[in-house]
């Protein structure tokens, strides 16, 4: 069955894929920022790449989502969704039930950060997934350390510089110490910032290229 097309005025801004209902078929979640919802499309096992009609979950009035990411936050082997809600200054967490449906949004405050990018990784080598955000409004990045439940630490924030307007991030081990680091594209200052992760849930100050 072909899904109902995304309405022209929904404003799809980000998409991520994963198997939400454990049927070995890839599914999609789409951040529709104009109407403040994420939509779930469940994939079918056929050669035409068809999907079910969407299921919608609200991210809150004025949330203006910029990006979605997928991972298992509560260590139940089921995929969850994280959303960077720039308009309401929070990260939205949707915990998955494993059948293609999700709990209502849990909000992690980002203060006045206006986060526009989000990525997931295990920065401190425990058993829990962490969340990194790019904070356009405060010229910084933030890391929420996970506890393997629906709880996270208060964000650890690191400056990317005055008027840097960071816009995107990538994650990798740049110094071969087996801890994941962050690379940030700073649109406003025309440079790339590197934050090296330490063992104690901290990062070095930004190294600029």
UniProtKB/TrEMBL annotation:
SUPFAM superfamilies: Integrin alpha N-terminal domain. It holds the Pfam family FG-GAP. It comes from the Eukaryota. The lineage of its organism: Eukaryota, Metazoa, Spiralia, Gnathifera, Rotifera. Keywords: Signal. This is VCBS repeat-containing protein.
